[in-house]
C-alpha cells in the first residue's frame, strides 16, 4: 500500500512538473539587450566564505554575476584572505563593503570590473583603464600593440596588460588585442586573467608589437568537480575521482562520449570492438565486477539523468567526471556498482550576446591489421611444392574474399549550436547530423538529433529552473559477423560468381557459404527514435539551504526488418523459399529525485549535509514475427503475412511478445566535513528496494561508504618549501551492489511446456520452471581504496596514485 502511494505521488509530481515547464516555456522568453556597467553592478550575490584567498573569491563572484574582473596581481594582493557573508546583496554592495576596505577602487565597463589601487588616480577612459603616467614619473612617448591568445589560439578578451610594478595598463578587446602607451625604454609587461597563469614578457625599446599565448592554471585545487548529487572542490575530494574538461578531450573523429576520454582516465578501458557503425563504445571501469547482475556497465549520468553514451553528441559535452571507487559511487547504490560517469553538457553563458557555432569533420576508415591469409597464388604454390594436400579444389580464380565484402567508408558529422539570453533567462539549442558508413558493405548509421536547454532565474535568484529536451532519429543497418567468418574460411581460388552469372556456392560443406551472396541477397534496416525531457528546480530559501527536484521522462522506440531472397543460402540449402522477420521494441523510463542540502561554516569548520529520495521505473515491451515460404521477394518484410510458414501450423513460436516493468526506490544521505581545508571527511549511506527481489526476504539493501583525506601540503611544516604545490593522502571504503537481471528470481514459477492428448484434444501443459528462493539477496561489492594526489614544480607535474582492493560477496 505504501509503495503504491509513493508511486502515485511520484507520477503526480511529474505531471505537475511537466505542466509547470510548459507554462514556463510559454511565459518566459529571452532577448538581447545592451549591457551597461550599472546593470552589472545591480546583479545580486549570495555568498559566504571563510579564510578564502581574494583570487578564489573573485572567481566565485564573477561566475555568480556573469562579470569579469580585470586587475594587475602586482598591484592587487590576490593572496590575502577574506571572511564574509552576503545574503542577496548587489555586486555594488559587495565591492563597497568587501573590496573597498582593502584599499581597492573599481570601475565598471559593461561586464568588466576593473580593479586598481585606491591611491592611484584613475584616468577617465570608458573603454580601457590606463592610469595617468605622470604619477609614475616615467615619460610615455611610444605605443605598443599586441594580441593575447589562449592555448587554442583563440582570443582572450578582458585580459589585463600592465607594466610590471606600475599602474600603467589596459585590457584586451573582444579580439584579444590591446594598445598601450609605455616609456621609451625596456619594460616588462605583466599579463593576467582569471583561470590563466600570470605571465611576464620583456619588451625592448625598439619593439612595437607583441603576441602572447596564455596557458591555463594547471592543478588548481579550487577546480569544481561533480561527486554525485552535488559538486566539491578538487582539493576537498576524499575519493578516487577523475575529471576531464573539454580542453583535454580527444580531438578528431569522435563518435560518442566514451571516445572523448579514451586514454584520459587511469583504470578506465574504452574500446570500439568492431568496425560496425551501429555499435557503441564499450566502457569498463576497473574491470568487470558482476556476472548475472542487473548493472553490467558504469552508470552514465547526463546532467544527473541516467542515459547512455549515444544520448548526447560529443560536441555538446562540457566535461566528464568519473567516480572510480566504492566510497565515491556508493551514494548511487546498485546503479553505481561499476562506477559512475558524469557527463555535463554545455549551457548558455547568459552574457546578453547571441552566438552561433558550427563545426564539422569528415573521416575515412581502414582495417589496421588484416588477417594474414593464404592467397590463391600461395595455395597453388604450396600444392606444387607438396606442402599441402589437395583438400581444396583449385577453382581457377583469385579472390580476396575480405576485400569483396569491405570498403573504405566515408563518414561526416555536422553540428550547429546557437546560444543566447541574459543572466535571468538564457538558452542553448543545437542540431547534429552524423552519417557514418561501415567497413562492411551495406552497413551504415545515420543520426539526426537536436537538443534545447533553457535556464530561468526567479525571485532574485532564489528559484532556478532548468528545462532540457533531447530528441534523435536514427536509421541504421549493422553487419553480420558470420559473414566476416565466412570470408576467412573461403577458398581463395573460388570465384564470386560462376560462368552462368549465379553466385558460386559449395553448400554441401558444413557451415560454408558465400559471404558475398549473403550480403547481396539480404536486406535489413532498423529505425530508432529517442526523446528525453527533463526539468529541475532549485530553491534557496535562505543562506546555506538548497532544495532541489529533478524530473525526467525518456522514451526509446525501435522498428526493424530483415529479409532474405530466394537466391540466399537459406533457400538453396534449407529450402525456406524466402525468409523475413520484423519487430519492434519500446522502453519508457521515468525518474524523480528530490534532495535537500545544507552547508554551514563555523570558524574553520565547514560541513555539508545532504539527504534525498529517488524513484526510477522502466516499462519495456518488444515483439517479433518471422515467416518464410513466400511467393515473391519484392515485398521484403513489408508484407510478412504472405509467407506460408505461420499459416501452415507446422511451426510454433514464430510470433513472440514480451513485457516487463521494474522500479527502484532509494533513500540516501551524505555528510562532508573539513577543518581548515586540511582534514577532510565524507560519509554516505543509501537504502534501496528493487522490484527484481520481490517475494524474497531481502527486498531492501544498504550501501554505506566512508572516506577521509589529509591535505599534507597545508600543514605548517610544508609552507617553506617550493617543490610541492599540493599533496593529499586519502583513503576510502564503500559498498555497492546489484540486483538480479531477471524478474521474479525469488518466487516459484510455472511455464507452458508440451502437449498431451485429453478427450481427443491436444492440451498444452503447465509445469514448474523455477523453485522458490526466498533467501536470494543483493550482490555486494566491497571496495577499499588508498590514494595520493600530488602537484609539483608550480603545478607543472601532477597526478594521482591509487591502490584498491575489491571483493564481491553473494555473487549472482
Number of helices: 12
Give the low-confidence spans: 12-36, 121-138
What is the radius of gyration computed over CA atoms, rounded to a whole number of angstroms?
Answer: 33 Å
Overall, the morphology is globular
Please outline the major beta sheet.
Answer: 15 strands, antiparallel
Largest beta sheet: strand ordering: 22-23-24-25-26-27-28-29-30-31-32-33-34-37-38
Instruction: Give me the count of strands.
Output: 38
- Work out the helicity level: 10-25%
Q: What's the N-to-C terminus distance?
A: 29 Å
Brief account:
It is built from twelve helices and 38 strands.
How is this structure best described in words?
By secondary structure, the chain is mainly beta. The radius of gyration is 33 Å and the shape is globular. The chain starts with a helix and ends with a strand.
Give short descriptive properties of this protein.
15-stranded antiparallel β-sheet; 12% helix; globular; 38 strands; mainly beta; 46% strand; 812 residues; 5-stranded mixed β-sheet
Secondary structure: elements and pairs:
Elements: H1 2-27, H2 37-41, E1 44-53, H3 54-65, E2 68-70, E3 81-90, H4 91-99, E4 104-109, E5 112-117, E6 140-149, E7 160-163, E8 169-171, E9 177-183, E10 187-192, E11 199-203, E12 209-213, E13 224-226, E14 231-233, E15 241-245, H5 257-260, E16 268-271, E17 282-285, E18 299-302, E19 305-307, E20 317-323, H6 326-329, E21 340-345, E22 355-364, H7 376-384, H8 401-405, E23 410-421, E24 425-437, E25 444-458, E26 463-477, H9 481-489, H10 515-520, E27 522-539, E28 545-564, H11 569-572, E29 579-602, E30 605-628, H12 645-648, E31 655-675, E32 679-690, E33 700-711, E34 724-738, E35 749-758, E36 761-770, E37 779-792, E38 797-809
Parallel strand pairs: 2-5, 6-12, 18-21
Antiparallel strand pairs: 1-3, 4-5, 6-9, 7-8, 7-10, 10-11, 13-14, 15-20, 16-17, 18-19, 20-21, 22-23, 23-24, 24-25, 25-26, 26-27, 27-28, 28-29, 29-30, 30-31, 31-32, 32-33, 33-34, 34-37, 35-36, 37-38
Amino acid at each position: 500500500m505504501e509503495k503504491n502511494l509513493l508511486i502515485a505521488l511520484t507520477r503526480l509530481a511529474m505531471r505537475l512538473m511537466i505542466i509547470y515547464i510548459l507554462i514556463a516555456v510559454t511565459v518566459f522568453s529571452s532577448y538581447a539587450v545592451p549591457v551597461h556597467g550599472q546593470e552589472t553592478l545591480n546583479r545580486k550575490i549570495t555568498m559566504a566564505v571563510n579564510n578564502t584567498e581574494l583570487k578564489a573569491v573573485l572567481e566565485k563572484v564573477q561566475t555568480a554575476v556573469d562579470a569579469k574582473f580585470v586587475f594587475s596581481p602586482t598591484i592587487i594582493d590576490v593572496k590575502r584572505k577574506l571572511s564574509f557573508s552576503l545574503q542577496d546583496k548587489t555586486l555594488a554592495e559587495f565591492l563597497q563593503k568587501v573590496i573597498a576596505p582593502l584599499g581597492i577602487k573599481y570601475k565598471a565597463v559593461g561586464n568588466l570590473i576593473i580593479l586598481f589601487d585606491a591611491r592611484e588616480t584613475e584616468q577617465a577612459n570608458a573603454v580601457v583603464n590606463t592610469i595617468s603616467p605622470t604619477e609614475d614619473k616615467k615619460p610615455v612617448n611610444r605605443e605598443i600593440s599586441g594580441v593575447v591568445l589562449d592555448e587554442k589560439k583563440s582570443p582572450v578578451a578582458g585580459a589585463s596588460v600592465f607594466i610590471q610594478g606600475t599602474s600603467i595598463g589596459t585590457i584586451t578587446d573582444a579580439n584579444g588585442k590591446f594598445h598601450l602607451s609605455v616609456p621609451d625604454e625596456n619594460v616588462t609587461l605583466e599579463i593576467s586573467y582569471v583561470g590563466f597563469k600570470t605571465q611576464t614578457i620583456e619588451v625592448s625599446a625598439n619593439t612595437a608589437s607583441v603576441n602572447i599565448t596564455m596557458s591555463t592554471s594547471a592543478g588548481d585545487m579550487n577546480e569544481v568537480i561533480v561527486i554525485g548529487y552535488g559538486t566539491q572542490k578538487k582539493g576537498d575530494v576524499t575519493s578516487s575521482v577523475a575529471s576531464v574538461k573539454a580542453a583535454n578531450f580527444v580531438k578528431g573523429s569522435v563518435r560518442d562520449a566514451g571516445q572523448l576520454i579514451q586514454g584520459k582516465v587511469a583504470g578506465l578501458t574504452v574500446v570500439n570492438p568492431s568496425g560496425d557503425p551501429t555499435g557503441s563504445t564499450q566502457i569498463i571501469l576497473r574491470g568487470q565486477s558482476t556476472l548475472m547482475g542487473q548493472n553490467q556497465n558504469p552508470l552514465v549520468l547526463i546532467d544527473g539523468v541516467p542515459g547512455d553514451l549515444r544520448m548526447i553528441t560529443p560536441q555538446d559535452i562540457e566535461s566528464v567526471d568519473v567516480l572510480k571507487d566504492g566510497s565515491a559511487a556508493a551514494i548511487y547504490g546498485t546503479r553505481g556498482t561499476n562506477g559512475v560517469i558524469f557527463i555535463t553538457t554545455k549551457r548558455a553563458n547568459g552574457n546578453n550576446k547571441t552566438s552561433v557555432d558550427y563545426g564539422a569533420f569528415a573521416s575515412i576508415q581502414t582495417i589496421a591489421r588484416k588477417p594474414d591469409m593464404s592467397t590463391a597464388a600461395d595455395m597453388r604454390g604450396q600444392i606444387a611444392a607438396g606442402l599441402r594436400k589437395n583438400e581444396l579444389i583449385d577453382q581457377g580464380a583469385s579472390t580476396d574474399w575480405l576485400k569483396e565484402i569491405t570498403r573504405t567508408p566515408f563518414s561526416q558529422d555536422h553540428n550547429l549550436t546557437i546560444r543566447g539570453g541574459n543572466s535571468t533567462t538564457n538558452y542553448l539549442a543545437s542540431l547534429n547530423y552524423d552519417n557514418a558508413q561501415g567497413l562492411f558493405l551495406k552497413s551504415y548509421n545515420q543520426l539526426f538529433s537536436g537538443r534545447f536547454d533553457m535556464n530561468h532565474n526567479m525571485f532574485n535568484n532564489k528559484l532556478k529552473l532548468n528545462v532540457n529536451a533531447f530528441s534523435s532519429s536514427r536509421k541504421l543497418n549493422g553487419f553480420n559477423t558470420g559473414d566476416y567468418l565466412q570470408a576467412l574460411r573461403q577458398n581463395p581460388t573460388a570465384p564470386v560468381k560462376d560462368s552462368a552469372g549465379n553466385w558460386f556456392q559449395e553448400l554441401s560443406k558444413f557451415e560454408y557459404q558465400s559471404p558475398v551472396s549473403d550480403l547481396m541477397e539480404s536486406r535489413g534496416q532498423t529505425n530508432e527514435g529517442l526523446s528525453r525531457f527533463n526539468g529541475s528546480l532549485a530553491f534557496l530559501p535562505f543562506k546555506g539551504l538548497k532544495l532541489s527536484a529533478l524530473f525526467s521522462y525518456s522514451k526509446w522506440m525501435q522498428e526493424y526488418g530483415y529479409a532474405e531472397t530466394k537466391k540466399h543460402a537459406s533457400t538453396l540449402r534449407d529450402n525456406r523459399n524466402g525468409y523475413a522477420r520484423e519487430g519492434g521494441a519500446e522502453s519508457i523510463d521515468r525518474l524523480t529525485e528530490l534532495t535537500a542540502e545544507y552547508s554551514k561554516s563555523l570558524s574553520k569548520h565547514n560541513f555539508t549535509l545532504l539527504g534525498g529520495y529517488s524513484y526510477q521505473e522502466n516499462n519495456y515491451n518488444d515483439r517479433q514475427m518471422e515467416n518464410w515460404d513466400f511467393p515473391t521477394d519484392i515485398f521484403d518484410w513489408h508484407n510478412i503475412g504472405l509467407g506460408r510458414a505461420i499459416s501452415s501450423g507446422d511451426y510454433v513460436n514464430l510470433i513472440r511478445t514480451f513485457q516487463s516493468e521494474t522500479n527502484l526506490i532509494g533513500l540516501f544521505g551524505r555528510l562532508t566535513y573539513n577543518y581548515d581545508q586540511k582534514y577532510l571527511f565524507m560519509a554516505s549511506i543509501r537504502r534501496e528496494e528493487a522490484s527484481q527481489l520481490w517475494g524474497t526476504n531481502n527486498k531492501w539493501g544498504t550501501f554505506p561508504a566512508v572516506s577521509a583525506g589529509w591535505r599534507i601540503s597545508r600543514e605548517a611544516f610544508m609552507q617553506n618549501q617550493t617543490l610541492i604545490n599540493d599533496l593529499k593522502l586519502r583513503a576510502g571504503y564503500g559498498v555497492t551492489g546489484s540486483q538480479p537481471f531477471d524478474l521474479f528470481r525469488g518466487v516459484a514459477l510455472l511455464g507452458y511446456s508440451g502437449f498431451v492428448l485429453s478427450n481427443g484434444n491436444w492440451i498444452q501443459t503447465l509445469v514448474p520452471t523455477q523453485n522458490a528462493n526466498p533467501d536470494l539477496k543483493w550482490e555486494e561489492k566491497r571496495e577499499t581504496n588508498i590514494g595520493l594526489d600530488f602537484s609539483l614544480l608550480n603545478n607543472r607535474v601532477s597526478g594521482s596514485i591509487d591502490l584498491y582492493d575489491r571483493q564481491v560477496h553473494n555473487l549472482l
